[in-house]
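Sample intake sheet
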Amino acid sequence: MALIDKLNAPGPKRLLSLDGGGVRGAISLGYLKRLETILAKQHNNPDFVLADYFDLVGGTSTGSILASCIAIGMKVDDIKRNYFNVINKIFAKKYAQWNIMPSKNAQKIVNILFSKADYDSKPIEEALQSIFKDITLGSDAFKTGLCIVTKRADTNSTWPLLNHPGGKYFNSADGKNKDILLWKAVRASAAAPTFFTPQVIDVGGGMNSAAFVDGGMTMANNPALQTLMVATLNGFPFRWKMGADNILLVSIGTGVNKFNKHYKEITAYQEFQWAAQIPDMLMQDASWQNQIILQWLSNSPAPWNIDGEIGDLSDDMMYKDEKGKGLISYLRYNTWLMKDELEKLMSKKYTQEKVDSFIEMDVASNCEELFEIAEKAAEKEIHGEHFDGIFDV
């Protein structure tokens, strides 16, 4: 089936959303492996790939690497092999830094002031080219819909780059996104400030070259809500119908930790310490806000407890149809990266130093262990009955 025929086919649509998180994309892979195994068994197909099931895959930053691999029909084992290769190459060695400060946060600010980026962009570009070669967003290599979330820094705007031939900027006087190389689109989504320099892309339509930075610099590091908007708003080409019987949205994270600091530590912060903390604080807030809205729209069988006041929103569905269903069917899978939770999950002890390293986005040596943690978590969280019913192929 041609891609456009799949995208325009009637019936319920399945969306998959993959968060950003650097090397913690290995956590998403652990969940994806479990998901692929369950669905392959349900469909009695050993050659099953996630592109057979999902109609649109959205990804931000590291999630855009995984999403693009899924969209061209790769199996999770192959994605894992390629992804680990990419991560080990791009985070192998930092540029020489100004190692003059006594604390990590202070050193980070000095690096920001005196360096363009922590890492050379050449290894990530070569690694992505080795996977995606000369595939463009207009290529017939895609097996399903793709949405890569990035940020155009020179206009301060969120850009969802799509492979749908009906998109406004796909092939028109306004833009030629169909000609954008897939590896460049992914590199743009993963161009995390301080880690890598921006990605420059010729976007056509008289706009010439544009500078892109990591999609995590938008409200869509967790791209689930953005992917839903792309799938259903009239401004985008998909225009799929809302409704719990029409839309299944599966959202997969890259691990989450809780801020837990003493108030005296916070009140003693200097300006450079706030500068180091604020991006992570805003990214976490944006992700939780995504989850609040999506759980508000749905009656999820796997809801997250948001906080002590609003709970898991199980009694707060924004809309109910005559069957008591919400506006979407929604599943969110993620795992806590905290010492107590990890020790309980893995039945082993961890030092706090090791747990702290799991939270970092550029410790490549953690990939295999993060994958194993997610495999364990996925066994507890992902169940076949989540995918029974109207969403069966």
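Comment: The chain has a mean pLDDT of 89. The two ends are 15 Å apart (CA to CA).
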